[in-house]
Design goal:
homodimer; alpha+beta; Arc Repressor Mutant, subunit A; 3-stranded antiparallel beta sheet; DNA-binding
DNA sequence: ACTTTATTTCTATATTTGTCGAATTAATTG
DNA sequence: CAATTAATTCGACAAATATAGAAATAAAGT
């Protein structure tokens, strides 16, 4: 079931607007960034942004914390790290049968 | 425009069936794995599998090479590596303002 | 209380996606 | 060349997604 979870999180990153949000969140660090700041940086309607944020929250990638009128968005760094760890461990680990290395070409017999 | 490209690739990984395919491809290494082998391991209809494969090919994650009657699928390792590099460089690089480290909790002021 | 600012929820709509049976194409074998 | 095996393309449909205006909620300032 962990694969399903990872897939759900990757799907959220797999949208240009949300990946842009993700990037802003990473750069904002643990102090977070307000919804308004994200909106002004990405220049999209609030309702659209809200929709994307709620999706990212739903899969645990980030969370929100209100401070007065403004809502701060903060990446769940440990969740992101788990996702990266999954990709590396399940898929790209150096001790896996097939290590991902830059390979100019597959061997002639196959690809 | 690189973000759009990365998002498109992540979107393809963001589906449980395709992530399972991706995992098989990584483990198959550069010798690849046949469509039939993928199908029998995942136990899904051929047309469904074919649909997912074509999507992954479309964004450059993998390619196919025919050998007689069987088609071998091979991950484009350099493409995958580029994607990982993008995630690390643009989003999670250790020299970025915010490094991704396992953080038990955000500081009290925000999240 | 009213207004402003910040953001969400509601609602509608267009588009994309996922699924899979049936028909088709490709290659090998008898 | 008919039959078999391998895989794709076609076609149809249900479900999920993306977008965004309008209305609602939340908090603060006047």
């Amino acid at each position: 079931m962990e694969l399903e979870f990872a897939a759900a999180q990757l799907a959220e990153l797999g949208h240009s607007t949300r990946l842009a949000i993700f990037r802003l969140l990473v750069r904002a660090g643990r102090s977070g960034i307000s919804v308004g700041d994200i909106q002004s940086q990405l220049d999209i309607p609030g309702s659209t942004l809200s929709h994307h944020l709620s999706r990212m929250i739903k899969v645990g990638l980030m969370q929100q914390q209100r401070d007065g009128r403004t809502l701060f968005c903060c990446l769940n760094f440990q969740v992101v790290e788990s996702l990266m760890a999954f990709l590396v461990a399940e898929c790209c680990a150096a001790d896996n049968p097939a290590v991902i290395r830059a390979q100019p070409e597959c061997k002639s017999g196959s690809c």
